[in-house]
Sequence to fold (407 residues):
Amino acid sequence: MMIAKKEKDRIRVPGFATAHSHAFQRGLRGRTQRKEAVPGSFWSWREGMYRMAERLDPDSIYAISRFAFAELALAGVTAVGEFHYVHHQANGTPYAERTLLADAVIRAARDVGLRITLLRVLYHRNGFHQVAQGAQRRFCDADVDRALDDVSDLMKKYALDHGVKVGVAPHSVRAVSRDWIVAAHRLAAAKQLPFHMHVAEQPREVEECKTEYGKTPVAMLAEAGVVNSSFVAVHATHLDDADIRLLGGARAFVCVCRTTERDLGDGLCRSGELLRAGARFCNGIDSHAITDPFEEVRAVELDDRLRTVSRHAVCDATELLRVGTRNGYEAIGMAGTEEDAVWLAAGDPALAGADERALDDAVVFGAGPRAVREVKVGNRVIVKDGVLADYEEIRAAYERALARVFS
Ligand SMILES: [Zn+2]
Fold:
């Protein structure tokens, strides 16, 4: 059975979910690609990202996030998991209203019409035996209980909005210690909240974890009791065979963010092996290096073809479409709201003449954001005839915010 359905001159697909986003990083697009004195790396890119993060204020984070979400909506995305880590003022002092910046990001998504799961990030150090510095102070909390109180406060604040969910996200094994991860997981398990972490994105993170704990990040997390079927491992790039068995055996989610991972030179996830071991995939736009949920979906398969020098390396188009839609909704705790839908122009050059018996294949391997005509979230049509209401106003506010941040 195909998921994509032909309806007159349209093709209907479920709304896409991006389960891992840092919306403010949309402002970095095209600003980090030039080679400087020494060739760049993930870590030098991160310095540029920190310079931007240092300069954000509640107005600019709202304007930049709203634009990022507007572009996602126009591309067919209906739900986003926002891995939100810029919490405090530039010197690290909390705002009087502690969740001011999280509130701004949530409002940005809701004003565009997207569903959002605010994954409240926990962060307290630069690394093993290294205190937080510079921009990282904005991300940090003095103690884990205070950070988790913010999670509870956000849940109360948005309890009546069905378009908003809250999750818990220890940043990574680098940025939080094992005690924090265990405490965060206790709350997530008790309240049945999504639980996300960056896992093994860079070889250095794996090496540092081995130094601190004598184990890989996945092995350490499994031993800490947090790897289960609601665990979302973002990236999961540098895994050994035992890590793959642990994630697969637990039926954990792996959230691959292929366009960002390509941009940052992270490396290739062992997708086919993970899937066959039992892991479930979802997609993330992560740094908003490019906004194309169709590309994120097909990259799960196509990048593994490159890695394994074979075809049909991971799964077929119908399963890939599930990765980009239903699986993403499940990973951010939004299961049950799959009435959200996207209509593509069947006559778009990317789709014209598609074989109706293989419509999922045509959509997954051929379509792009240009084909998106209508986007519906719940009862609300947020994109009509390819147009998002208020787009020009949203864009102008975004450009003004960027001018301030990069002045
Ligand atoms: Zn990320």
The chain has a mean pLDDT of 96. Residues 26 and 269 are 24 Å apart (CA to CA). The chain has 15 helices and 14 strands. The pocket of zinc ion is lined by residues 20, 22, 83, 198, 234, 286 (CB under 6 Å).
